């Protein structure tokens, strides 16, 4: 059980894996059980706009599956920054984080089904088209998806959903640059 006023583990599975704009004491690869990463959360504050939201990842309950990512040990004061960064529908959820040799208590930012920005499932092609089109104050939605896929691959984390979206995005960019330079 984590203690108030003590450093606590936060499990990152999306942009937290590749964009650490917060101090941490330690980071380790880890996994959480019973969850799947999906591009089902809308983003109108970071990777899209109110009238044209982008898509970012959230966690969907998936018994029997594991979601791999990175856990960061952070001081309690860091949560103020993280709560603000993850404010568009994400809430802290207590979770057991498995490392190679031990399991620790921590939290994860999850955007639950039914939050105001939740978009839910869509065909992979439609998700990729939306991501390819959208951009917001933090930059292109495409960058979010590609950097996430790269970080997962570099760490040998498997995620067919993310890799499928990445492949579709790369294909779209190939065909648009071929179109621009016949
Ligand atoms: C996370 O990275 O753990 C939460 C979702 C996100 O910020 O992309």
Compile the SSE list and pairings:
Elements: E1 8-12, H1 15-18, E2 26-43, E3 54-74, H2 78-85, E4 90-98, E5 103-111, H3 124-133, E6 135-136, E7 139-140, H4 141-154, H5 160-180
Parallel strand pairs: 1-5
Antiparallel strand pairs: 1-3, 2-3, 4-5, 6-7
Question: Could you characterize the architecture of this molecule?
Answer:
The chain is α+β, with helices and mostly antiparallel strands and 182 residues long. The protein has one domain: Gamma-glutamyl cyclotransferase-like (Hypothetical upf0131 protein ytfp), CATH 3.10.490.10. Helices cover 31% and strands 36% of the residues. The protein has 5 helices and 7 strands. It has helices at residues 15-18, 78-85, 124-133, 141-154, 160-180; strands at 8-12, 26-43, 54-74, 90-98, 103-111, 135-136, 139-140. The chain has a 5-stranded mixed beta sheet. It has a two-stranded antiparallel sheet with strand order 6-7. Helix 3 (124-133) crosses helix 5 (160-180) and helix 4 crosses helix 5 (160-180). The longest helix has 21 residues, at 160-180. The protein is globular, with a radius of gyration of 16 Å. The model has no long low-confidence stretch (mean pLDDT 95). The chain binds succinic acid (SIN). Succinic acid is lined by residues 12-16, 56-57, 86, 109.
């Amino acid at each position: 059980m984590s203690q108030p006023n003590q450093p606590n583990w936060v499990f990152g599975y999306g942009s937290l894996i590749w964009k650490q704009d917060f101090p941490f004491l330690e980071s380790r690869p880890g996994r959480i059980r019973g969850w799947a990463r999906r591009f089902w959360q809308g983003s109108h504050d970071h990777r899209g706009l109110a009238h044209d939201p982008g898509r970012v990842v959230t966690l969907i309950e998936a018994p029997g599956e594991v979601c791999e990512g990175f856990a960061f040990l952070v001081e309690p004061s860091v949560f103020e920054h993280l709560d603000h960064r993850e404010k568009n529908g994400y809430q802290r959820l207590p979770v057991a984080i498995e490392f190679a040799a031990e399991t620790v208590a921590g939290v994860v930012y999850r955007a639950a089904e039914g939050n105001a920005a939740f978009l839910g499932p869509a065909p992979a092609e439609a998700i990729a088209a939306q991501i390819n089109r959208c951009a917001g104050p933090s930059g292109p939605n495409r960058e979010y998806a590609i950097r996430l896929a790269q970080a997962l691959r570099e760490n040998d984390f498997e995620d067919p959903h993310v890799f499928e979206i990445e492949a579709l995005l790369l294909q779209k960019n190939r065909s648009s640059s071929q179109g621009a330079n016949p």
